[in-house]
Amino acid sequence: xxxxxxxxxxxxxxxxxxxxxxxxxxxxxKRKVSDNPKRRQWRTRKLGLNRKKxxxxxxx
Length: 60
Hints:
Elements: H1 3-17, H2 23-28, H3 51-58
């Protein structure tokens, strides 16, 4: 897998992870679980995927 394809896969996974907690989970837990602590704001917290660090971290 080359660098660009692996980066697309990683970015897609990060996009899926950056979602709110589903409504049925909030309802089932009676609002005890209402927020996602791993939620990332695109402007303030960056992923840090520059080419050199990315290749080292994901071994491609």
